[in-house]
Amino acid sequence: MSGRQHRETELARQIRARGLAAGKSSAQIAGEIHDKCNAQFGTTRIKGHRLAHGVALADVIEQIRALFERDGKSAPGIGETLLSAYESGLKRPGPEYLHYLCSAYRVEPASLGYDGPCICGHGHRMPGVVRGDLQDGRPDTSPGPRELLIQPIGLGLSADGGEEDENVLRRTLLQLLAGGGTIALDGQMLGSVESIRRRMDDTLVSATVSPAMLDQWEESTIGFGRQYMNTAPLRLLCDVMLEFSAVRKAMERRQPVDLQERLCRMAAQLAGLSGMIMINLGDHRLARSFFRTGRTAADETGDRALRAWVTAREALVPLYYGDPREALNLAKKSRDLAGQTPCAAQAMAPVVEARALAMMSGAGKKEVVDQAKRALSRARAAFSQMTAADQDDSTFGYTERQLYFHQGDALVKLGQAMEADLILEQALTKYGPTDWLDPTIIKLDRAQCKILEGDVDEALNIAQRTIAGLDDECRPDILMQRAHEVARQAGVKDPGNPRLKIYLESLRTRGVAVADPVAGGGDS
């Protein structure tokens, strides 16, 4: 500890001792420490709370880890270095870490020096969160165990600030964090998501933030990309949209050119990621709207690779929802935007081309198979030219396992069952135990391979085991449409198969609207 830090700690210790002797709360003592130490040592409000409790960084980290464990969540990545960066003002906690810091200190974000309400919205005195008899020196008047208090946060704020839309997301996220079972994607939720997206559109056509804050947002954006493969879509949508809204607010006033470009990049990435999530949730209209917003933001950056990435991701909407010709056109547009720049879109776009060609012309046609395989060959060549960072990013880049998966999916649609099954088997080995979305679709693709080979019984066994192993919140529309497609193909191949009826019934019990498997169903 440096001499300056030692003097700061000593002064804080004296203030704490006098405060405890006078019967003051920890929150009141923290305020006094900040008032008396800030001018001399630059003591932040969040650090003042730790000093008011008389604990070390390691103690706070252990308490946060204990809170994560209590809530049934995996160990957090926060450590002493990151907490020290929060206390020095170099970084700002993301919504989840801020919630647990507030829980540990039993205060609201404003007491720690941060604007806005906590993501949970209930003031940290609700049963199930760390409780105390005093909150900023006032008696605890928290609601009963069956009440959920959502504080009104829109008072005194501008009518178009989007606070109520954010409250809808916070309430949904709180219910998900509390394990509230299946949460419906209702009209109010979709309306709030669309409202936040529209505000970003307005900001992009109209727009000071610190570089440190931008660093934090960029880290959060990258983190959301990593969560895409192993987090339930609705839960992730809440986190992404709250960050999206924060970026929009920062863009309401024009920034210096370099900072504005970084904000536009984050807006494009978050809009693209939101579009991907909406595809999974089955709302292709809102997905297209998000990709349009993403294109607007990407155009502001002048980054060909980013513009090509948004377009390649957008091509998946018509690919999954019945217009392969438009998917093919968007894939070609993405390829043109990328040009000779080594990037994720150079590999993604040809794969989308191959999948669209297979859907347009059907399986088994030699000229279509040859054309699609040439596109897959271009994808492999482009992948080999990508940077290691892009090859390791499954959301904003393109990974080897995704390449295997999408090649296998294209070959299934082309009717190349044996080759597809081998590639899909290789793809499965490259996913981790926490990844669920892509591996589930891969297993359903392998079930389709079995149907192509004539083994309908095994196909239905694979599909039924796969769906049965999923939690309720891990059954997005895009996945269940694949399950439906297995039923449709099985019905065409062997309409009298007794296992088909059992499989269809299992889908109905999962809340999936299943069409007549012989008459046909939705495209996947």
Q: Outline of this structure?
A:
The protein is mainly α. The protein has helices at residues 3-21, 26-41, 45-53, 57-70, 80-88, 95-105, 163-177, 187-206, 211-227, 233-250, 257-281, 284-301, 304-314, 316-320, 324-338, 344-361, 366-385, 388-391, 400-413, 417-429, 437-452, 456-468, 477-493, 498-509; strands at residues 134-135, 138-139.
Description:
- This protein is mainly α.
- It is built from 24 helices and two strands.
- It has helices at about 5-20, 25-40, 45-55, 55-70, 80-90, 95-105, 165-175, 185-205, 210-225, 235-250, 255-280, 285-300, 305-315, 315-320, 325-340, 345-360, 365-385, 390, 400-415, 415-430, 435-450, 455-470, 475-495, 500-510; strands at about 135, 140.
- A two-stranded antiparallel sheet has the order 1-2.
- Helix 11 (about 255-280) packs parallel to helix 13, helix 17 runs antiparallel to helix 19 and helix 22 (about 455-470) packs antiparallel against helix 23 (about 475-495).
- It is elongated and about 85 Å long.
- It starts with a helix and ends in a 15-residue tail after the last helix.
